[in-house]
Every structure is written in C-alpha cells, then in structure tokens.
C-alpha cells in the first residue's frame, strides 16, 4: 500500500474561523470517486459549490472566498461515496 494516501474520509475545520474574506478548507478522500463540497447559508440555501466531480484519493485543501456573501454563519458539506460530513464556519466583515 501507499502510506501517502489517507485511510479514512475527513473534513477539517476551516482556518481561519471566523474569516474575512477567505478561508481554507482541508479534506481527505481514501478512494477515488465522485465528490462534492457545497457551502450553505444558515437557512440551508446552497450559496457555492467548491468541488463537484470525480477526484482521486488523497489530501486536499481548497480556498473559499466569502467576498460576495454577507456576514453570518455558513455550513460546508463534503459528500464522497457513502461518506458525508458537515462543518460550520463564520464570516465576519
């Protein structure tokens, strides 16, 4: 096996948090597959799609800009295979 690949799915807490206007979201995928990361507002309305497609196993980090959004609480959700996780982040302008 390749020890450089993750053994489990994970979705990290964004950093920095609270953020203005950009933050970094890290995640890991242990096997290739269709993956999405979407950002939702406090009402559950989708406001951004950060990842949407087939990706290979590995560790990833993505920058998210909230420059077009208003201050408040947002949620980001990772879905890949049967795995799903959601975390909360705070945008303060």
Describe the model.
This protein is an all-beta fold and 93 residues long. The chain has no helices and 7 strands. It has strands at residues 10-11, 22-29, 33-41, 46-55, 58-65, 72-80, 83-91. The strands form 2 sheets. Strands 4-3-6-7 form a 4-stranded antiparallel sheet, with no helix packed on it. Strands 1-2-5 form a 3-stranded antiparallel sheet, with no helix packed on it. Strand 6 and strand 7 (83-91) form a beta hairpin. The protein is elongated.
Topology:
Layout (H helix, E strand, L loop, with lengths): L9 E2 L10 E8 L3 E9 L4 E10 L2 E8 L6 E9 L2 E9 L2
Antiparallel strand pairs: 1-2, 2-5, 3-4, 3-6, 6-7
Gist of the model:
With 93 residues, the chain is mainly beta. It has strands at residues 10-11, 22-29, 33-41, 46-55, 58-65, 72-80, 83-91.
Percent strand: over 45%
Structural class: mainly beta
H/E series: EEEEEEE
Identify the overall geometry. elongated
Largest sheet: 4 strands, antiparallel
Number of strands: 7
- Please tell me how large the radius of gyration is: 13 Å
Mean of all residue-level pLDDT scores: 96
The number of helical runs is 0
């Amino acid at each position: 096996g390749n020890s450089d690949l993750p053994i489990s799915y994970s979705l990290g807490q964004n950093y920095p948090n609270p953020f203005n206007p950009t933050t970094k979201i890290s995640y890991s995928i242990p096997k290739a597959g269709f993956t999405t990361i979407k950002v939702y507002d406090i009402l559950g309305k989708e406001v951004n799609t950060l990842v949407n497609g087939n990706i290979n196993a590995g560790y990833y980090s993505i920058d998210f800009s909230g420059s077009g959004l208003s201050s408040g609480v947002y949620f980001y959700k990772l879905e890949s295979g049967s795995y799903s996780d959601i975390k909360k982040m705070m945008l303060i302008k």
